[in-house]
Amino acid sequence: MRIVLLLTFLLVSTPFFSQTEDEKQIKAIYDEALTNGKAYDWLNYLSNQIGGRLSGSVQAQHAVEYTKEQLDSLGLDKVWLQPVMVPKWVRGVPEFAYFETKPGLTTNVPICALGGSVSTPAGGLKASVVEVKGIEDLEKLGRDKIAGKIVFYNRPMDPTLINTFSAYSGCVDQRYSGAAEAGKYGAVGVIVRSMNLRLDDYPHTGSMGYGDTPVNQRIPAAAISTNGAELLSTTLKLNPDAKFYFKQNCKQLDDVQSYNVIGEITGSTYPNEIMVVGGHLDSWDLGDGSHDDGAGCVQSMDVLRLLKETGYKPKRTLRVVLFMNEENGMRGGNKYAEVARNKNEEHVFALESDSGGFTPRGFSIDASAENVEQIQGWRDLFEPYLIHMFYEGGSGADIGPLKEEGMVLAGLRPDTQRYFDHHHAENDTFEHVNKRELELGAATMASLVYLIDKYGTIPTKKIKG
Amino acid sequence: MRIVLLLTFLLVSTPFFSQTEDEKQIKAIYDEALTNGKAYDWLNYLSNQIGGRLSGSVQAQHAVEYTKEQLDSLGLDKVWLQPVMVPKWVRGVPEFAYFETKPGLTTNVPICALGGSVSTPAGGLKASVVEVKGIEDLEKLGRDKIAGKIVFYNRPMDPTLINTFSAYSGCVDQRYSGAAEAGKYGAVGVIVRSMNLRLDDYPHTGSMGYGDTPVNQRIPAAAISTNGAELLSTTLKLNPDAKFYFKQNCKQLDDVQSYNVIGEITGSTYPNEIMVVGGHLDSWDLGDGSHDDGAGCVQSMDVLRLLKETGYKPKRTLRVVLFMNEENGMRGGNKYAEVARNKNEEHVFALESDSGGFTPRGFSIDASAENVEQIQGWRDLFEPYLIHMFYEGGSGADIGPLKEEGMVLAGLRPDTQRYFDHHHAENDTFEHVNKRELELGAATMASLVYLIDKYGTIPTKKIKG
Ligand SMILES: [Zn+2]
Ligand SMILES: [Zn+2]
């Protein structure tokens, strides 16, 4: 039945034939991912044999070696390590915190140092607490009410935002800049409500920065679990004089040598036009970094394998790049872009997966209107795989520095509802990644790479100097 | 800015105004669900205080009482219990199984009796094994190769099917009819590979039936975990004479009294036109039935609360129905439809949630083309909530018996990738339900109910007698 139809249309309609070839190739990609996908096994090793991979750690180095070795085994045209110096921050011994409503009457709460924070004094730090809903509150309170105290940032993520990344964006300034800003008013430390939409006992770490705060004026910053934040807030309402104690001995060491891991299938027709798929190989240290971003790494690795196994030879050069140090420095992404510019490499397309290994829903596309429209025109090809979202928006932190006019950048967009339950916390672990969801993401990425390679991107008229 | 636009368009375009009113109402529903949703708390109680709710069990009765009490507290117009007699099957002591490659050399494997199965002899049952890929293989093998043996049904779910329910449909005949069919060839028992797409150690139960097999010819049936199935299959290849032993003492008791739980908001304008939202209150006994179908019950309950809280008064009568005995008898669904017919009630719409409490993706709609089209016309209203699927298809087992020409039936369709990891197994438990995903499902259901109520369904020309 199918063959008869095909023959009838073949004579009158090449687009129909071409559509069918695309349908077949994309089906082959999904079938291969769901039956012989490698992503889950790779992730198992990264998560359970290596674990959390903070930049500069032994684990990060193991991850570099392991992923290079796995890429070597795929029979790509080239695999190499790209050197990059990375910051090394270490957490030290586990943090400890409590609040005290009367001398001697204390309640422990789960905290963790924010990445990049200084330590507390060796004996810890105890002070009164001033709760705020954000940095904006500091000015209203003024130095009088803040100096000598611990500032407790407690603005929760907005549960009514359907895309949880929007809720994250709306809160994360507290974590990133909270200490630098509170320090200006004489605060002695900050405690930040974890960036988590649900109530639980996990503190969530993440990067923070001191801006131009002189080293001797930097104050320690920690995240408190959402349950801890609720409890502390209630306690402060009943007992505004309650004191908070915390102790952490994290520190920033000298930069160390690390690497981006890169594998390449050289383009058969346009080897100088480069397409990148990637994720970041580093992770925070509390969990094993399965969703953030072990998932994105192993999906990106599998994209090359999926195309190879389904017999598709890219016309353009296709690289998988596992970027180092996204979490606390972005050194890998910046280095890759710097080297590309120095070598005058032409990158036409880059796709990052760094939003968790959940069921893929679509892509966010950072490109010219023509390119966005071209990708949206492939919607029907993705419909059988329940990929519905093709909207204009950001792509990924690591590929951002590659951005140039005419280039197409995209980010895989999976379901976001569970992501912040795990993000940067002790429970970002392998058992929370579902094999099929991970594989569907890899296949979705490979399918877009296939279409971009086959049809090309639409170049913008460049204004040449 | 918004107000100015509104005023401008108000004069020329009522559809625009009406669209905006819909947008506002739907946003209010989602906001309420995501900030004050009750579904998760109710599910917590059903799952963690009551637990698995097999028809006829004490837990099922507790669930009836608890949900009635909760509906009573919502200030609905009516709440009642609808009596229905249900079958009572009990598992008895935990099942036990091993295979034996040489006398005395045994390996234990996890099994569970299938719902409705007879027990093994008191001392268990030991026999050689014949592995098949499905019922079709029985005829090819013939009585000679089957008589006196245990038939091992080992066709896995097809991983390439994107909708995992399709993969389930493609396999579940082994579970439901495997024993009745194998019995015809003289088999003494059947072991069925669990309906699970991943490899793990949980056996998955589920209903089976003996058809017209005389009572004294019924053979016991159990499910084996997917890892167990793989191991058994490998063992049989190396050692075709391996024997399988299993012991279970489940049994079917007399029917007992139970209830559908029903709550109603009586319609303000068309009280005789009835809309139903529901799920099934019974579950299997191995886990706590959180996804199947505690989720659907608490979402359905919250639909009425969400409409109430957002100030929407339905023109039509809206009922939540928590059906008893979907899993092993369908008595609740049949009883509800029977009573409705006896009372000449006119049901215009029914919506069931019975596919897990995962992120909602859309609806499957069983209705006339005009009604499917009308619902698809509301697509843009659902787009902000990432609800993209509005396809023609089945609705739900419990509401199926209500079906009449002109009626609109629908099923909530959440993400399906993880569902069969938990379905009918010990790990269908509360911690695998995400609060936001559950709440988004409730809001999605309430939004469709709102639109159906506001715009009505499109009646088919009925051929009257
Ligand atoms: Zn990340
Ligand atoms: Zn069910």
Automatic annotation (TrEMBL), chains A, B:
Work out whether the entry's keyword set contains Amino-acid biosynthesis.
no
Q: Which domain of life is it from?
A: Bacteria
Report the principal subcellular site: endoplasmic reticulum
Does this entry carry the keyword Heme?
Answer: no
Per UniProt, the keywords (alphabetical) are: Carboxypeptidase, Endoplasmic reticulum, Glycoprotein, Golgi apparatus, Hydrolase, Lysosome, Metal-binding, Metalloprotease, Protease, Secreted, Signal, Zinc, Zymogen
Q: Where is the signal peptide?
A: 1-18
Q: Where is the Peptidase M28 domain?
A: 260-447
Provide the protein's localization.
Endoplasmic reticulum; Golgi apparatus; Lysosome; Secreted
Q: Which PANTHER family match?
A: CARBOXYPEPTIDASE Q, PROTEASE FAMILY M28 PLASMA GLUTAMATE CARBOXYPEPTIDASE-RELATED
This protein's assembly is summarised as: Homodimer. The monomeric form is inactive while the homodimer is active.
| Name of the protein this chain belongs to | Carboxypeptidase Q
